[in-house]
Specification:
It holds the Pfam family ApbE. By secondary structure, this protein is of the alpha+beta class. It contains eight helices and 20 strands. Helices cover 27% and strands 33% of the residues. It has a ten-stranded mixed beta sheet. The protein has a four-stranded antiparallel beta sheet with strand order 2-11-12-19, with no helix packed on it. A three-stranded antiparallel beta sheet has the order 1-14-15, with no helix packed on it. β11 and β12 form a beta hairpin. 47% of the residues are buried.
């Protein structure tokens, strides 16, 4: 059995802790601070442009705090862990978590359950990123599927009720939420002119602009290139978020079949629909993260209507080496591989 983990996207360039002076704007010298950190069980890459202090350490801590205080299902003191422990009862949560959950469950409804935050038990049964990745028995899946379904959770303001047996796992939106938190923080920092933040290669935030006015560019991985070469690059504007979901990020091979971590909430099995990856760009980290998962599960044809509803753009890569672009992605995607063919998603 062979286990693989691979990043989906990364910023064009190399990250390391550094301080670099960049061109002067309005007689004030803007500094460029770059840093690598670790949060949400992944590498975090940060490039900050500011006339003030280096905020990268504080930003890394904010991402860790959002996980331990709100999102972690393993930390018994987090709000999600407490919600799961109280399954069958009503629990009051913070305004922040209630706001996240409202968006998450609206997306679950709009995607007809293709994105579903109640699938955590089945994710852990497969243990694809753990020490014992395996294909579960059908009887095991059937038993756990009884507790899956976003309809098993009700929201009433700050009050959340899970049906007994149901649990929440916000892993599919966690990195996007982290990006949103950082973006909100930067809006309070008058000295900051721009930042690019990359969580684990799959979630990216662009904030503000570079001092020289050049574009924010994010490289997208070729999902079938074991050497790690890039499929292409996407240009982001300040205030945009990017997320990629793919069958190559976390998976194991058994009997020649790829068992990956994006599961269909209806069957409990990995999604096999001809797609290798989906990259989504929109104005929310949480939604970019959730939409990339939902669109992968839905498949391109059914995903287009959902993307339009959320005013989001996407790049679909299929197993036949076709790259499909939504209309708003045509002028911002640059192909780097001549082994792929670019087409219009329609």
């Amino acid at each position: 059995m062979k286990i693989k983990k691979k990043s989906a996207v990364m910023l064009c360039g190399v990250f390391c802790t550094a301080l670099t002076a960049v061109p002067v704007l309005a007689d004030i010298e803007v500094q460029k601070y770059t840093n690598t950190d670790f949060a949400m069980d992944t590498v975090v890459s940060e490039t900050l442009y500011t006339t003030g202090d280096d905020l990268n350490t504080a930003i890394g801590q904010k991402i860790r705090d959002i996980e331990t205080e709100y999102l972690s299902w393993t930390d018994e003191d987090s709000q999600i862990a407490k919600l799961n422990a109280a399954s069958g009862e009503t629990t009051e949560v913070s305004d922040e978590l209630a706001g996240y959950l409202e968006k998450i469950f609206q997306l679950a409804k709009d995607s007809n359950g293709a994105f579903d935050p109640t699938i955590g038990k089945i994710i852990r049964l497969w243990d694809i990123t753990g020490e014992n990745p395996h294909v579960p028995e059908q009887s095991e899946l059937d038993e756990l599927l009884k507790d899956v379904g976003y309809q098993k959770v009700s929201l009433d303001g700050d009050k959340v009720t899970l049906e007994k047996g149901a649990t929440l796992d916000l892993g599919a939106t966690g990195k996007g939420i982290g990006c949103d938190v950082v973006s909100d923080f930067l809006k309070t920092q008058e000295d900051v002119s721009g930042m690019i933040l990359n969580l684990g290669g799959s979630s990216v935030m662009a904030y503000g602009e570079k001092p020289d006015g050049s574009d924010w560019k994010v490289a997208v991985t070729d999902p079938r290139d074991v050497e790690g070469d890039y499929l292409g690059a996407i240009t982001l504007e300040g205030g945009e978020f990017l997320s990629t979901s793919g069958d190559y990020e976390k998976y194991f091979m058994e009997d020649g079949k790829r068992y990956h971590h994006i599961l269909d909430p209806k069957t409990g099995y990995p999604v096999w629909n001809g797609l290798d990856s989906v990259t989504v760009v929109c104005d929310s980290g949480l939604l970019a993260d959730g939409l990339s998962t939902a669109c992968f599960v839905l498949g391109m044809d059914d995903a287009l209507e959902l993307l339009e509803k959320y005013n989001a753009e996407a790049v679909f890569v299929d197993e036949d080496k076709n790259v499909y672009l939504t209309s708003g992605m045509k002028d911002r995607f640059e192909l780097m591989k001549n082994t792929y063919t670019v087409k219009e998603a329609e």
